[in-house]
Amino acid sequence: MMNKYKLNVGIIGLGTVGSGVIKLLKKQRRNIKNRTGIELKVVAITARNRRKRRGVDISSFKWVDSPLEIARDPEVDVVVELIGDTDKTAAKVIREAISNGKHVVTANKSLLAKEGSFFEELAKEKGVFLRYEAAVAGGIPIIKVLQDSLIVNKISKLYGVINGTCNFILTKMESDGREYLDVFSEAKKLGYVESDPRLDIGGIDSAHKLALLSCLAFGTTLNFKSVKTEGIDHISIEDIQEADLIGYKIKLLATAEYSKNTLIQEVSPKLIRKGSPIAQVNGSTNIIAIEGEEIGTTVFSGPGAGMGPTASSVVSDLVAIASRKSKSTFLTGEKINGSNKYESTSKKSSFYLRFILKDKPGVIARLSGKLSSCGISISQMKQKPFAKQKATLIITTHKTLQENLEKALIDIKNLKICEQRPVCIEIQEFQKGSQVS
């Protein structure tokens, strides 16, 4: 039986976060014990490369060659999994640790978004805890907020910027006037981009996080597959500059909304009014807004990544487990099935459109005619001079049904008047009175 005031920790993965956890425990060990009465002791560690320089002394810790050995070690009370999901090792480690009656703390949002319900069911069966505060929004304790602070609220919507890499790229494009590929290359050199870049720029990382937040906020089943996902690699500096001229910034927004027994989850670029706190979030900072029945709209902002913030979230989970204040995550409350498909085509929104047209007589008239025939009213139109047999047309629409716009874009594609796929970005308007409007 685990001592209530002492927790023996095994750490698997000593990258940025794992090294940060060791640094934080060394620095704050006495402070944690004085404030909580809890002693957190690292008793075993492992990583792919023992000799790698990490900026922290690990010579005093027991090195174990195999992650699965730590998951089976009778001396270990809790396994901290920080190796990611590249070779299926993480899933094996978590399953083995829980099966051996060990608590698990992980930052692996990708794995949790796909298999979190299974792990939680197994943890419940074995009487242990699964914690993952570090998997979403770095230093913002959003998991605890949804589980504890807002537990009496019926939440209808949550949204925000939850991927620091995309936000860094969009911010840098705007501030420096540089194209996407140029800034993406810089972000990659700085180590901001995942080994598989699509996880970040394709919106998949945000979708993983959104799926986790949704099931906690609305009591729905975990449903990553239902998240409509679009990235930022089609956004040009021209789009950012045109948005600026009409009072907006472009952000990759993650949104989840529960209404009429349907859960809608989406990650996609949006035009956000400059005055909104969400539009003003730069770099790797994350921001999450939650709309609740009793609280209205509450906004949480903070560092979304980095050694310190993420390590802090890991250690806070360890304290929660040691104090027995931890609780189930995916299996709380009444379950409501999330929608298996994206169902928001009946929603009315305004849109920003950019077309690259062929230099042929009547192309603009033909395009405008298709928009009109689908019931789409143009708010503003700007034609840029022809260059190299091409013309750029910028359009913003009045509010229209998304299904009508999708039909119009298909019809326009069939006209074969565009040089490339049109850019279509929803203009996000928040409800009046909201703190993020």
Brief synopsis:
It is built from 13 helices and 16 strands. With about 425 residues, it is α/β, with parallel strands linked by helices. The protein folds into 3 domains: about 5-135, NAD(P)-binding Rossmann-like Domain (Rossmann fold, 3-Layer(aba) Sandwich), CATH 3.40.50.720; about 140-305, Dihydrodipicolinate Reductase, domain 2; about 350-430, 2-Layer Sandwich (Alpha-Beta Plaits).
Account of the 3D structure:
The structure is a single chain. With 437 residues, this protein is α/β, with parallel strands linked by helices. It has three domains: 6-135, NAD(P)-binding Rossmann-like Domain (Rossmann fold); 142-304, Dihydrodipicolinate Reductase, domain 2 (2-Layer Sandwich); 348-428, 2-Layer Sandwich (Alpha-Beta Plaits), CATH 3.30.70.260. It is 36% helix and 25% strand. It has 13 helices and 16 strands. Strands 6, 7, 8, 9, 10, 11, 12, 13, 14, 15 and 16 form an eleven-stranded mixed beta sheet that branches. The chain has a five-stranded parallel beta sheet with strand order 2-1-3-4-5, with helices on both faces. Helix 4 (109-126) links the parallel strand 4 (103-106) and strand 5 (130-131). The protein is elongated and about 75 Å long. The N and C termini lie far apart (51 Å). The model has no long low-confidence stretch (mean pLDDT 89).
- Give the distance, in angstroms, between the N- and C-terminal Cα atoms: 51 Å
Shape: elongated
By helix and strand content, what is the structural category? alpha/beta
CATH architecture of the largest domain: 2-Layer Sandwich
Helical content class: 25-40%
